[in-house]
Amino acid sequence: MRNHELLRKSLRKVISKNKGLIAGLTLIIAASVFSSLIPPLVLERAVNLLTDYRDVSWGLALLYFLFIVIADILESAQNASITIFGQKVTHGIRSALCEKLGRLPADYFHSHESGKIESIFTNDGDAIDVLYSDGVVSMIADLFKVIGILAVIFTRSPGLGLLVTAVTPLLFLFTRVCQKRANKAQLANRRAIARVNGHVPETLRCIRMIHVLHAEKYMEDTYDGYIRESYDAVEKSNLIDSIYSPVILLTQACVTAVMMVLAAKGDAWRSFFGISVGTAVAMMAYVNKIFAPLENIGMEIQNIQSAAAAIGHINEFLSEPEWNPADSCPEQDACVSFQHVTFGYEKEHPVLNDLSFSVERGEMVTFAGRTGAGKTTIFRLLTGLYEPDSGSVNLAGRCPCSLRPEEKRKVYGYVEQSFAPVPGTVRDQITIYDTGISEEQIRKAVRLAGLEKIIDGLPSGLDTPMDPQQFSRGQLQLLSIARAVVTDPAILLLDEVTASLDAETEARVIRALKNSSEGRTVLTISHRLSAALGSTRIIEISEQGKNTSSEI
Amino acid sequence: MHTNTREPDHPDRIRSYFKAEIPVLIVVTVSGLIYNVGMLAGPYFEGRLAQCLYDIIRGKAVLRDMGVLAAAYVAVIFLVQLMRAVKRFGVRRFANNVSRSMRRCLYNSLVHASQKELAEEGLGQLLTKAIADVDSCVEGMRKFTTEIFDTGVVMVAYIGMLVYYDWRLAILSCIFSPAAYFAADRLKKNVTAANAAYKKSAASLSGQTMDRIGNALTYRVYGREENRNEKYEEALADYEKKSAAANLFEGSMTPLYDAIAMFGAVMVIYFGARNVNGTGWTPWNIAAFTTFLACFTKLAVKASHAAKLFNAVQKASVSWHRIQPLMKDPVKDTPDAADAPVEKASLAFRHVSCGYDGADYLRDLNFTVRPGEIVGVTGEIASGKSLLGKVLIGEAPYKGMILVGGKDFRTLTEEEKRSLITWMGHDPELLNLSIAENVSLGSPVDTGFFLKMTAMDADLEAMQRTEHGKAGEAGTMLSGGQQERVALARTLAHARSVLILDDPFAAVDKTTETKILQSIREYCGDRTILILSHRLWHFPEFNHVLYLHDGTGTFLPHEKMLEQEPGYRTLFREQMKGGDYDEKS
Fold this sequence. Notes:
heterodimer; A: alpha/beta; ABC transporter transmembrane region fold; Rossmann fold; three-stranded antiparallel beta sheet; 8 strands; 65% helix; B: alpha/beta; 3 domains; six-stranded mixed beta sheet; four-stranded antiparallel beta sheet; 23 helices; elongated; disordered C terminus
C-alpha cells in the first residue's frame, strides 16, 4: 500500500476533535452487538419448552419481542452515530483539501483541469464519507458482531463453532478475489464518469462551433463513447457484485446442512454439536445472523476498495509539491525590474532567456513579441504566480512572491484577459469580499472604470446579485478594471484586455484604462492598447525570450 | 458486450423505456420470480430440518432422511441464489441501458439547440441539470424494478405461506405491519424536508467548490485566498449538519419500523406454541412452528423495506418530472451534408440593415463577394464588424436581402445554410481532445495539412509534441495564439462555400499572419471569403474592403477607399506606423 500519511494526519485531527463522539460510538456499537445476540437464546428456550410438551408463557414471548426492539433501537443509534462520524471525517478532509489549494503552485492550476480538481473535492470526498460510514466503522461493528456470535456458538455447539471458523477464511479469500477485480473496474468507471460529466459543459461552451461545423453527430458519438466506457466498467463490477452474495448465502446453507447431518449421526456427534432441537433452531438463527455481517463485511471491504481510488487521488493531491518561493531578492531602485531572468514552465524549455529590463515609476510600457514569446509569462512572474528559475524579479522594491496576500492589491492591480466573475453581488466583483474597502473607494473605482451608468441601471445598484449574462463582454472588462484599481495600486498590469472585444464598449474600455492609468506605472502586453493609451515605451521580447529593448 | 440499445418510441414517457428493454426485463422477471418464491425454501427447509432432528432423537426417523433433506436444501438454495445473481445483473443492465438512452436523448436536444435557446432561454442550464437528474431517476427505476420482486412478490409469497399454515395467526401477527407503514407515512414529511435542506446545502457547497477552484488564481493574484477558505469552511459546516440530519432521518427509520412490525412475533410465539401443544387453532409440529416464525421475521423485515421502495419511487418521480418536458424525439443528423462537395457560391448584401436587438445597428449595406475573392471588413471599434458574422449564423436579425449562391438567405433551411456558410468567431471553442481530433471532428481530413496551413506544425515541433497530443480543457495546454490557429485549421478543414473569419489573427504576429493568409489563398482559391479584422496590414492585397462607419458601410477597393474615406485612411496610416515594431520579429 502507498503511504497515506497526509490523509492519516487529517483523520487524526478529526478524531482528536471528536473524542466524545467516538467514545459514544464505541459504546453504542458494543451495546448493539450484545443486544442482537439475545433473541435466538430466548427462541431456544421456547423451542426446548415445546419439545418437552410445555406451554410458552406470554412473558417469554414478550421478552423475545423486547430484546428485538432493544436491538433495533440500538442499531438505529449505531447507524446515526456512524453517519455523523463519517460526515465529520469528510468535513475534515475537505477542509484540508481547501487549505491545500492555497499552497499549490500556480502551475498546478494551469496544468490540471478544474473539473478534475473539483472531482477530488466532490466525488472523492463523498467516497471518503462512504469509506468511513459504510466502510471502516460499520466493518468494525460487523466484526464485533461476528466475534460475538462465534463466541455464543462455541459455548452452545463447539462443532458448529469449528465448522464456521473453518469456512470463514475461505470466504475471505473469495472476497479478496472479488474485491480486486471490482476495484479495477471501479477505477476505470471513475475515469469514464469524469469524461461523461465534463462533456456537457464543454458542449455548451463550444455550441456555435458545433453547429457551424456540423459536429453534432461527432459530439453525440463522443458522448456515447464515454458513456459506453463507463458502462463496460460498471458491468464488470456488477457481475462480481451479482455473484458475491449468492456464494455467501449458498455457503450458509451448506454449513447448516452439514451441521444437521452430523448432529443426526448419533449421540456422540450430537453432544459435540451440543444440539437439542431448541439449540438447533437457535443455531440456525445464528448461522443466518453470522453470515449477514460477513456479507456486509464483504460489501464494506468493497466500499473501502472503491474508496482506494479516492484515497489515492486525495493523497496525491495533498502530497503535491507546495509553493515555497524564496522571499527575498536583491534591492532595486526601479519600480519594476527583471534581472537576467530565465524561466520555463518546464526547466528544459525556457520561455524567457536571460531577460533584463527595468521600468521607472510612472512609466508606461508595452511588451511586444511573437505569440508564445512569453509576454503573459512576464505578468505571471510579476504577480508572483511563478518564480524565475534564475535571476530576479522586482516589483516596487519587493520580490513579488514575498508579498503578503493583503499587500498584493496595494502594490499592483491586474486586469486579466477575461473577467473572472465571482459569486455574490456586483459589489463583490469589485471588492472580492474585502470588507476593508470603503464605499468611497468603490465609488471612485466605479467612476474611473466608467461604470456609473451601468450600475445605476441595475435594480439594486451595487448590491444587485451578479449575473454575468447581464453584462456585455466589454462591461465585464470594465468591472475587471474597477476590481484592479479599487485599492489604488501604484502599478497597473494590463493583459490582452481588449483582445476579444467586439462590442460597442471597446472604446469605453480604453477610455476607462486611460483614466485609470493616470499617476500609475502601467505595463501592458496588448498591441492595440499601446497605440490607444498614447506614448509608451516598447520592450521587445524576441523569440528566444530575450529582450531587444527599443523605444518608440 | 453491448448490443446497440433500442431507442424508446416516446422518450417523454417513462413506460417506453421499460418497453424498449423488454428482453432484459423478461430475464429479470423470470429469474426474479423464481428467486423470490424460492426465498420460501429457506424457512421451509430449516423448519423441516429441525423437525427431522426431533424425529431422529425420538427414533421416528433415520440419518438417511436427514441426508436427503439436507441435500435437497442445499440444491434448492443453489438454484435460488443462481436466479438471484441473474436477476441482479439483469436489473443493473436494464438501469444502464435506460440511463444511456435518457442521456443520449437529452444530449441530442442539447447539441441541437440554438445558441439563443441555450443562453437566453436558459435551456443550457436546464439540460445540464436534467442530465444530472438522469442518475437519480434511473436509480429510482432500478430500485423500483428490484423491489417489485424483492419486496412485492416475496411479500405475497410469505403471506401465502403464513395463511397456509394458520390463517388466524397470520392475520393476528401481520396486523402490526400496516402500523409500520402508518409510522413511515407520518415520518415521510420530516424525511422530505430534511432531504430538501440537504440538497440545497449540497448545491451551495458544490457551487462554492467550483468557484474556489475555478477562480483559484484570480483569488491568489488578488490575495483573497484565505477569505475564500473561510467561506468554504462555513459551507462545509452547513453541509455536514444538513447531510447528517437527512441521513439520520432516512437511515434510522428502518430499524424502528422493523421493531413495530416485529410485535407480531409475540403472537407467533405464544399462539404458535399452543398450536404445537395441540391447544391452539391448528395442529402444528415443530417444523411448522419454526418455519412460521422464520417466515414472519423475514416478512417483517421486508415490510420495513417496502417503505424504502416508496421513497425510491418518489425520489425518481421528482427527477423524472424535471427531465420529462425536455425529452424530445431525437433530431437525426444527415452526416453527409457536411461531406457534400463544396459548390462555388457568391455572397451578396442588398440594402441590408441589421443589429443585435433590432435590425438598426447597421443600415443599407450593399456589396457582393464572388468565389475566389477575399473581402476585408473593418471599421472603428464597435462599428459592427462581428455583427455581419452573427447575421450569417442566424444570431442577429436583419432586413433587406442577403443572397448566398443566388438564393435568398431567408428561404434557406438550417441545413442548407450550414452547407454553404462557415463562420469562425473569437472564441477558439476547442474540445478536450487531441489537437488532431479538434481539427478533424471525426471527419477523414488530412489534419497535418491544415495544421501546417496555420503554421501550427512549427509550434508543435518547438513544443516537442505531435498533433495527437491533448489540447487540454478548453485548449489550455496551448497558448492563446496556438488555440486560435488550431481553431482556424479546424475551420479551414471544414470550410464550405462562404467563409467568414471574425478576427482570426487577434493573437497572431504579423509574420505568421502573412504566412497563413498565403496558404488560405492557395487552398481556398475558389471560396468566398470575408475577413473581419481591425488589423489592416493585408487589406491592400484584398479584392475589396468593406469599411463600416456611421452605422453603414462603404464597399470599395483598398486604394479607392483610401482616397474616398478619411476615416479609413486614418485607421490604415496609424496601423502602418504602430505596426513597425512587429516587423522585426
